[in-house]
Amino acid sequence: MKGQNQVVFRPFTEKDFEALAALFAQQWCSELNDEAARLASQIDICTYLAETDWSLLAQHPQTGAVLGAALLHQGGAPHERWLARKQELLAEARANKGLFGDVMRDISVIDEEAALGAEYVASGQVGCEAELKLLIVSPAAQGLGVGGRLFGGAKAQVAEAGCRGFFLLTDDSCDVSFYEHKKLLRMETRRINAVEAPCPPTESGPQGEGFNMYVYAQEVR
């Protein structure tokens, strides 16, 4: 695809952190005020990066803008650097009582996601050896094949690492049809009612009335 060939694909580096978090905030924290969205998205990205042992980032060749990223966990030890950065950001959030509630509601969703992921790994089902922690594509990259390239790169890495498959976690605020188009199987559905999801209204109901979280998985060999 012509547009895809004009996009630069490379591993994530620490200098990409703020740009990737800003893209995350744009897509999944847009209902928060700017400062709460910044803190929530950076904490979330730190959570993912702490368990990332392979990455692929899409970048605009002229502007350098981050157009998307895939972060993959294949069983490596947590990265202390990102765990420490997360604690710094949490301390910053706690110091601002006006923001802390919104930030913690966002984190509670990530915690629910992590708990579901741990349960799935323990179940030994399809793809439990590797987890696609994050797949995100900027609206500015629509039609360029960026999502497919990022997904394909992660899938190829899973196979190269000798894993039999991989899984990912998503929810109603995401386009699950993309994963179904890529032939992933929906393995689990969990209704989350205990927390108020800090995301726009979803197919499962208005904001604050709960949402569905899903496990999708695929074998690669």
H/E order of the elements?
HEHHEEHHEHEHEE
- Overall shape: globular
Biggest sheet features: 7 strands, mixed
Which regions contain 5 or more consecutive residues with pLDDT less than 50? 197-208
Q: How confident overall, as mean pLDDT?
A: 91
Number of strands: 7
Instruction: Tell me the distance between the termini.
Output: 27 Å
Describe the 3D structure.
The chain has a 7-stranded mixed beta sheet with strand order 1-2-3-4-5-7-6, sandwiched between helices. It is globular. The chain has 221 residues and is an alpha+beta fold. The protein has 7 helices and 7 strands.
Overview in brief:
Helix content is 43%, strand content 22%. It contains seven helices and seven strands.
Give the secondary structure arrangement, pairings included:
Elements: H1 2-5, E1 8-10, H2 17-28, H3 34-49, E2 54-59, E3 66-73, H4 80-94, H5 97-123, E4 131-137, H6 146-160, E5 165-171, H7 176-181, E6 185-192, E7 211-219
Parallel strand pairs: 4-5
Antiparallel strand pairs: 1-2, 2-3, 3-4, 5-7, 6-7
Helix pairs in contact: 2-3, 3-4, 3-5
Q: What labels would you give this structure?
A:
alpha+beta; 7-stranded mixed sheet; 7 helices
